[in-house]
Amino acid sequence: MKEKILLVDDEKDFLDTMVERMSARGMVVSTAASAAEAVRMIEQESFDAVVLDLMMPEVDGLEALKTIKAKQPDLQIILLTGYATVEKGIEAMKLGAMDLVEKPADLKLLTEKIKKAQARRMIIVEKRTEEKIKKIITTRGW
Amino acid sequence: MRASCDILGETGLRFFGRVSASISHELKNVLSIINENSGLLEDLALMAETGAGLDPARVQTSTRRIQEQVRRADAIIRNLNCFSHSVDRANGVFDLHQLVGCLVALTRRLSDMKGVKVVHAPVGAVPLTLATSPFFLKTLLWNLLDFSMEMVDERKTVLLRTLAASGAHGAEVRFTQLATSSHVGTGFPNEAQAALIRALEAEVTVNPAEIVLALPATCLDDT
Lengths: 142, 223
What we know:
The complex is a heterodimer of chains A (about 140) and B (about 220).
Chain A lengths: L3 E5 L3 H13 L3 E5 L2 H10 L4 E5 L7 H11 L4 E6 L4 H9 L4 E4 L4 H33 L3
Parallel strand pairs in A: 1-2, 1-3, 3-4, 4-5
Helix pairs in contact in A: 2-3
Chain B lengths: L3 H46 L6 H29 L7 E4 H11 L1 H6 L3 E6 L6 E4 L1 H16 L7 E8 L4 E8 L14 H9 L3 E5 L2 E7 L7
Parallel strand pairs in B: 2-4
Antiparallel strand pairs in B: 1-3, 4-5, 5-7, 6-7
Helix pairs in contact in B: 1-2, 1-5, 1-6, 2-3, 5-6
């Protein structure tokens, strides 16, 4: 199954090149050049994972992470950062980020993390579906 | 009360750290784009080896992106070098227009992060040569710019004008296009700004919609 990814970064050349490389690896990639655009997109579409730059103009990555997690708690978010300080990493994990990758990213490593994110999301979705079915069975008087 | 030299040292070091951190982040972004484009060229080469045709336009796009990023990194490092040399000596002779232009370029990412555009407009004769501490002046200018960015009007732009002045003042830097509301100037000057203003024997006036930094005529280099 193809991974559906939202890539968020304010560097257009970075986005364009990543789209080309990730698409060649079988992923379906959408892009957003700002945190605000990313938030709008996750409200309209569902993604397996969001790859989010930690340092962006106006709304930084951690703020964006909080907003996205508040809207879609199950969404898997991988943060991209210029410098992965321990404090930022811990803060990001506490806010619900799945992982943190330092720039320049190794695409092989990032792809592995994306696959892991998709698997996690599938487990969560399956669990939710199972719970819904159980609830229907127990509440309906068949 | 803390000694002025302690305040100046701490403020200067904090400014140096902030600029260095911002530049290192920007260089990481440049490296990321170069890294991905070299990876893309490798992908294209691997595809060509398997018999898939090689599209010259895709190769050209990637090499153009790499060349652009090399130019971008070169400009960043040139500005960083100019900034680093501003602490070589306590006082130096420099062109004010050039110093402000370099500061604006150096702090571009910091202003971008705030969603504010900073435009430098030199006015009048070039060069406007001054003899004072370039590092203290850059630190004060950044302090005022940072302060100005918090009070921009709906245009979200700070227009920085550098010009010669008359009378007791030798030169001015005007931070314009600020909001005219009453909160402009609230909390100014703080301890660091006051120490820098004293060290440079400068004057700062907060007017509606603008902040004016006036440097004394004694700063003008008449050699």
